[in-house]
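Usage example:
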Amino acid sequence: MADANEHGIIPDVKTCTVCGKQYTRRKGYGFRQWAASTTCSRNCSVAIVNANRVWPTQRERFEAKVDRSLGQGPEGTCHEWKGHRTKWGYGSFKVGTAVKKAHRVAYELYCGEVPSDQMVLHSCDNPPCCNPDHLSLGDQVKNMQEKRLRGRNRNRGEKKLPRVNGDPDGMPIPGDLRHLSVY
Ligand SMILES: [Zn+2]
Ligand SMILES: [Zn+2]
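Running the assembly step on the lines above writes:
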């Protein structure tokens, strides 16, 4: 007995889209199940699932965790890591059993290899940033020099304030608005 749907009559015999064999409606198959069926057997339907499965590559997995929308970081052009972060704010990315820093993986993906004696540094000073344009190679000495230049050691994660009245922490004196001017 043939069933009808909005597309017309569904025959009781179909041709398997995988192996090409003809097969008949299985006992217990409801109308919808039979209408949706394209394979003769479980083996053939598994073959379709496997053929359509796209195993996410490392790069796809990585890029799915990077937010490229505008307005992030000090210049508004950072691409911040949305996944797990270390206590210092760096992104963590699992590669096999190893856990790598996300910005380092970003450098490897878009810029090239990182020599073992080199670090991947942020020109934006924004640890979760994975924008390759903000990443460069350097060593520990260069990293500390750059941090010192930016005053990051003192004001991690805060807007850098110019020193006021020789206060070593650069903290403004209440009521003193000079720190708001841009020098
Ligand atoms: Zn088949
Ligand atoms: Zn950045």
